[in-house]
């Protein structure tokens, strides 16, 4: 039984006990149960209170060179197609493309009801195995990409950040050249020094708009990071200081050669039709993690 189900069952047990006529016959025990109920509700809220928010997905190419950056593009398109199938929309917030139509990194927002709740367990290292289209000798290549999913906060009071923990820098946003070059430093990078998490936003026209959006993105990333740490500590697992986007840490493998299969290593869920997965049919993996 998953922790959330156990928590909900215990909440229902205590609430049922509180409705019994003899509940207050033992005031000390009653107060203890009331305290436990509040703690359980706080725990449940911390896991689920932002599930209804939009999701922000950050995809970063890791080991694998051009193949990893092409894989980043493939995953970006996969999640955007998943969003389309749900009637949701995807908005690019920041992107760093390469010269081969791939991405070094890309950030986009999935706008839809409970988007974060559905997609939050997609966070982790994804692995691709295939014959590389970038290798003249037709050799098999393994590449890795990091996917990060965080809730979109519209109101920063939901997850306030301490200004003393932030390092903020500005740069010129990229332009088309000539008279269209943006001569003002409107692009914003903010780093949260305790966790070393940073965000870069250049999509808006003004520095203040980019700063506001960067703060919202950073708040979501810090929340997702601390939640992941809390869950690992509850499970008795060591908290990782850094994430290496390479072999041995993948949550899912996409194998195109020598056979075709997508396998989620957390649940052992397997799908043989890899084309449907890359076309956005990933609900089977999402449901298996719930």
Automatic annotation (TrEMBL):
It holds the Pfam family PCRF. One of its GO terms (cellular component) is cytoplasm. GO terms for molecular function: translation release factor activity. InterPro entries: PCRF (IPR005139), Pep_chain_release_fac_I (IPR000352), Pep_chain_release_fac_I_sf (IPR045853). It comes from the Bacteria. Keywords: Methylation. PROSITE patterns: RF_PROK_I. SUPFAM superfamilies: Release factor. Residues 172-188 form the Prokaryotic-type class I peptide chain release factors domain. PANTHER family: CLASS I PEPTIDE CHAIN RELEASE FACTOR, PEPTIDE CHAIN RELEASE FACTOR 2. Belongs to the prokaryotic/mitochondrial release factor family. This is Peptide chain release factor 2.
């Amino acid at each position: 039984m998953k922790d959330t189900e156990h928590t909900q069952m215990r909440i229902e047990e205590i609430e049922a006990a509180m409705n019994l006529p003899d509940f207050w016959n033992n005031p000390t025990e009653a107060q203890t149960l009331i305290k436990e109920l509040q703690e359980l509700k706080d725990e449940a809220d911390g896991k689920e209170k932002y599930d209804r928010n939009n999701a922000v997905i950050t995809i970063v190419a890791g080991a694998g060179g051009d193949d990893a950056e092409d894989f980043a593009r493939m995953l970006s398109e996969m999640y955007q197609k998943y969003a389309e199938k749900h009637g949701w929309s995807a908005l690019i917030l920041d992107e760093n493309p390469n010269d081969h139509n791939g991405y070094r990194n890309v950030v986009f927002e999935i706008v839809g009801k409970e988007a974060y709740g559905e997609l939050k367990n997609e966070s982790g290292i994804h692995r691709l195995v295939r014959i590389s289209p970038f290798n003249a000798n037709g050799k098999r290549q393994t590449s890795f990409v990091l996917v990060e999913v965080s809730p979109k906060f519209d109101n920063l009071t939901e997850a306030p950040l301490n200004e003393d923990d932030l390092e903020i820098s500005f740069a010129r946003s990229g332009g088309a050249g000539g008279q269209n070059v943006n001569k003002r430093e409107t692009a914003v990078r903010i780093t949260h020094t305790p966790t070393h998490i940073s965000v870069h936003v250049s999509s808006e026209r003004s520095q203040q708009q980019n700063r506001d959006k960067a703060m919202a993105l950073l708040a979501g990333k810090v929340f997702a990071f601390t939640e992941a740490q809390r869950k690992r500590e509850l499970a008795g697992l060591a908290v990782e200081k850094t994430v290496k986007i390479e072999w041995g840490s993948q949550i899912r493998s996409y194998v195109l050669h020598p056979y075709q299969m997508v396998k989620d290593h957390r649940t052992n869920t397997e799908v043989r039709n890899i084309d449907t997965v890359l076309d956005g049919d990933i609900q089977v993996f999402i449901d298996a993690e719930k």
